[in-house]
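C-alpha cells for chain A. Residues wanted.
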C-alpha cells in the first residue's frame, strides 16, 4: 500500500490553497464512490470551496450526469484516460466550479485484466480558466495501487486530492 503523509492529511492541506484563490471544486467519482467528497467534508468550513460529489459509477450515470459520450465509453471503456478527462471536465462545467476532479478505476478484488489490472485508476483534474484566456485545461494521470478494495479506494481518493493540490499550487504560482 502506498504511504501518505499522516500529518496533516491531504484534505486539510488542500483547504488553504483553494480558499486563498477563491476556488471551488466538484468531483465525479466512479471507483471511489463519494470517498473524495467525504474526505473534503471532514474539514470544517469546506463549504467555502467544496460544491458537490457525483457518484458516477455506471456508464449511464457518466453519460447523464457529466456528459461522457457513449462513443468514448464504447471505444475506450469506463476505466480509461478519455473517460477520466471527460468526467473531470463535465463535473467542472455542470457544477460551474473552478476545478473538476474525477476518478475511474478498478478497486477489486475482481474485474482486472492484463492491460488494466486491479488497482488501476485514472485521475482527472480540470481547471476552468476565464473566458477568452484559453487557460482551461484537463489533465489525467494513471496509477496502479495494491491492497484490499478499501485500501485501494483510500489510496485513489488521497492521490486524487494530491493531484488536485499540485494543480492548484501550479496555478497559484503563475
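Reply:
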Amino acid at each position: 500500500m502506498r504511504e501518505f503523509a499522516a500529518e496533516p492529511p491531504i484534505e486539510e492541506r488542500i483547504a488553504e490553497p483553494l480558499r486563498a484563490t477563491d476556488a471551488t471544486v466538484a468531483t465525479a467519482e466512479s471507483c471511489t464512490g463519494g470517498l473524495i467528497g467525504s474526505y473534503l467534508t471532514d474539514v470544517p468550513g469546506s463549504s467555502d470551496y467544496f460544491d458537490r460529489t457525483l457518484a458516477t459509477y455506471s456508464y449511464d450515470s457518466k453519460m447523464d450526469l457529466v456528459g461522457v459520450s457513449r462513443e468514448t465509453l464504447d471505444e475506450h471503456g469506463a476505466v480509461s484516460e478519455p473517460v477520466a478527462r471527460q468526467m473531470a471536465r463535465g463535473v467542472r462545467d455542470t457544477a460551474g466550479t473552478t476545478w473538476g476532479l474525477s476518478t475511474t478505476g478498478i478497486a477489486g478484488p475482481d474485474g482486472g485484466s492484463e492491460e488494466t489490472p486491479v488497482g488501476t485508476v485514472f485521475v482527472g483534474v480540470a481547471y476552468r480558466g476565464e473566458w477568452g484566456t484559453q487557460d482551461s485545461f484537463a489533465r489525467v494521470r494513471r496509477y496502479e495501487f495494491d491492497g484490499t478494495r478499501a485500501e485501494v479506494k483510500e489510496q485513489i481518493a488521497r492521490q486524487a486530492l494530491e493531484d488536485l493540490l499540485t494543480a492548484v499550487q501550479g496555478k497559484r504560482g503563475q
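The first helix runs from residue 10 to 13. The chain has seven helices and five strands.
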